[in-house]
Please model this.
Amino acid sequence: MQNNANRLLLKILSDCIFDNHPEFLWNSLSATQQLEIIAEADKFKLRRILYYYLKNFFPKEIIRDSKVNFVSFAAKSMQREKAIEELQNIFKENEIEFRLLKGAFLISCIYPHAALRDSCDIDLLVKESDSQRAFELTSAHGWIVINKNRDKTSHHLPRQCKKNVSLEIHTTLFGNLKNENKKLWYEFSCRNPNIELHLLHILNHAVRDHNLINVETALIDVGFILKYKNIDITYLNYLEDTFKCNGLLALFLNSFSDFFSPSEFACKTQTPDVIKKLCRSTIFDSSRSLGNKTYINTFFRRGYKNFLFIVLRFLASFSLYRMSRRYSISKTRTLLFYPYYFIKTFLSRIQEFFQVKKFIKNDISQDQLESCRTAGTIQDYIDRQN
Model:
């Protein structure tokens, strides 16, 4: 539930991003109101953005702490940029093409200062044929797998870490298209840097992959993209159809129309009022939905299409390809000992299901349950558009 400080924070962030004289509104507030807004910003790690644009107007008693906060994010960004430079050298020496994604891309091309975009990892896209080699190369250069038991059939290879920087090597971005990797590389080869494709990925990642748990970051990302780049709406519509992402941009633009109004970017598609209200409720939501996409799909979404998807996803676990990747063994070995790996996989999946069910029943609050249902309802709406 948004309070007055939330609404003022959202308005000031919009004014900052679109250079709409944020100091006018800021200076009209009392010192107490300013401190309340900064306190709200701190809950969602947004103080650095206010400091960057309004540091000359900050209350004196918080200038020092705010500067320290900003510098800490800047130092974190420098560490990440150094890691990106190392990866660029590794892949260049081994003739592996890649594209930076999400935060790493936005910092390099969109944001006016690296400290303004918080990011906990480096995401990059490689060709399917290069994915295993890329993973082996990064491992050989000190990037350590964080969770060795992670199912390797995800849209990215197991997360790696080095010197407090995480790395995710992707082969797909949306997961809605056969031979998606080839199609993605075709689009990136046609347009570089392909702002429209990055924009669509950021929206899809926030709504579908991360269940709107960090919608503030996505909102700010989209704001900076719309500010600095001219979006080819015809091409964007083509990408929405191709990757089955219709309705995502309209969801943001319609739900947060006041925030995006300075961009003067119009969207022809209207989002139902009930969905807009639900989407607005996710902003500055301290309870948050669960971050796990599979949990939301299994326990909070409705409709026969999603049910069939869950069933097919469960059955896919028993294919030679999936089991060989899950247990890091060859397909031949999987076939030779198929009954053993079938039973092992079956028991593992059933155990996971009941563990998650128990967790949802006993360990999360009613507010968080409601946030999960909200995320599921919004995702169901988006899926119906596609």
Summary: Residues 290 and 364 are 9 Å apart (CA to CA). The chain has 20 helices and five strands.
